[in-house]
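Re: that backbone. Tokens:
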């Protein structure tokens, strides 16, 4: 089911999200809906608060694959990159943000099994952007100016 993507100004985007503690059918449904919603919106990532659910779960859709990260935590961050970002909750805008070049994250999948991944480049940028959402942070808070997106 496609869910509505909440837009900047909605207080749910500014919450510190709660950890997921039940790996049940409700979580599976949320993640399925987030995937469908993200694919339709053709974005690189979506965090649960963006569909109005203040839980620590995100999905990322990048050339490396499709990933669901539940209760993700950084292990380390290395290097630096600087480039353009947008957000499905800040429609029609873009801005340049400094991010680490490479990150390692531990997380759980929808069944509650624990994994880790290393992401670099755009993948790392997407992971960092989505994890920020879980702490109520939007890229516009970090960007060197926000402009209308050209397409
Ligand atoms: Co976003």
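Recovered sequence:
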């Amino acid at each position: 089911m496609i869910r509505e993507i909440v837009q900047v100004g909605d207080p749910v985007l500014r919450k510190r999200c709660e950890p997921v503690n039940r790996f049940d059918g409700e979580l599976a449904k949320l993640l399925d809906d987030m995937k469908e919603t993200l694919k339709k919106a053709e974005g690189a990532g979506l965090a649960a608060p963006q569909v109005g659910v203040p839980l620590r779960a995100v999905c990322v859709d990048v050339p490396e694959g499709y990933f669901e990260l539940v209760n993700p935590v950084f292990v380390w961050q290395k290097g630096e990159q600087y480039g353009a970002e947008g957000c499905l909750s800040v429609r029609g805008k873009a801005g340049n943000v400094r991010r680490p070049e490479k990150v390692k994250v531990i997380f759980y999948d929808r069944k509650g099994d624990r994994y880790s991944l290393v992401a670099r480049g755009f993948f790392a940028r997407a992971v960092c952007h989505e994890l920020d959402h879980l702490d109520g942070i939007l890229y516009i808070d970090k960007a060197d100016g926000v402009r209308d997106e050209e397409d």
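The chain has a mean pLDDT of 97. The radius of gyration is 14 Å.
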